[in-house]
Specification:
By secondary structure, the chain is an all-alpha fold. Among the domains are: about 40 residues, no CATH class; about 35 residues, no CATH class. InterPro entries: Matrin/U1-C_Znf_C2H2 (IPR000690), Matrin/U1-like-C_Znf_C2H2 (IPR003604), U1-CZ_Znf_C2H2 (IPR013085), U1_snRNP-C (IPR017340), Znf_C2H2_sf (IPR036236). GO terms for molecular function: pre-mRNA 5'-splice site binding; zinc ion binding.
């Protein structure tokens, strides 16, 4: 037999746990339960027997007493205080600080500022993403596109997208550190000297040739 809900005054479709659970958590059931207990609480606060009606003399006496008491008590005055200049400046500084904080750069930008490759990630003009390349060349993007294809390479391609090839044989050698050339008693400025090795090899070769 279907279960009957005392709060909703209706029968459930089936007497199963799932149907009961869905009915108990329903908005209509919760609203009716709340109304039921609110009405019960309101009934317990109100007396069962209504107060007897007072006579005309008693009503006049109560009215005179209330009027005299109201006339004896002066109306309460609510003072109005304007903000001082110091308070206004403080509020203005707080508003300015809040606006500055709201327009502050993101934490990642502050954290990685000055690191290598910062501009290629956080500066929109230097990003090397697909959207910017598509906006520059205005060509259809295909999955098999090659960078060295002359048909798809534009003349306005920025130089920053090209990889820099390091030179393994520089033309000029780096100067020695200034710390080594500061004092006269510093060690010689020759970092790799093969003279002792060549001398040793030459002596051994001569000895073997004599034998």
């Amino acid at each position: 037999m279907a279960r009957y809900c005392d709060y909703c005054h209706s029968y459930l479709t089936h007497d199963t746990p799932s149907v009961r659970k869905s009915h108990v958590v329903g908005k209509n059931h919760l609203r009716l339960v709340a109304d039921y207990y609110c009405n019960k609480a309101r009934q317990t606060r109100q007396p069962l027997l209504q107060r007897k009606r007072s006579t005309r003399k008693q009503r006049l006496r109560d009215r005179r007493t209330g009027t005299a008491a109201a006339a004896a008590v002066p109306p309460r005055r609510i003072p109005l205080h304007c903000d001082s200049n110091r308070t206004k400046r403080l509020l203005q500084s707080q508003t300015t600080a809040y606006e500055h904080h709201s327009t502050a750069p993101p934490p990642l930008v502050t954290l990685y500022r000055g690191s290598p490759g910062f501009a290629k990630v956080f500066v929109p003009e230097c990003r090397l993403d697909t959207a910017q390349s598509a906006q520059q060349d205005r060509l259809p993007q295909r999955a098999n596109r090659r960078a060295a294809d002359p048909a798809t390479t534009t003349a306005a391609e920025p130089a920053r997208s090209r990889d820099r090839q390091p030179n393994p044989h520089p033309h000029s050698a780096l100067p020695p550190p200034r710390v080594l050339a500061r004092w006269a008693t510093a060690p010689p400025l020759v970092y790799a000297d093969d003279t002792p090795a060549h001398t040793t090899v030459r002596d051994i070769t001569r000895r073997l040739g004599r034998r």
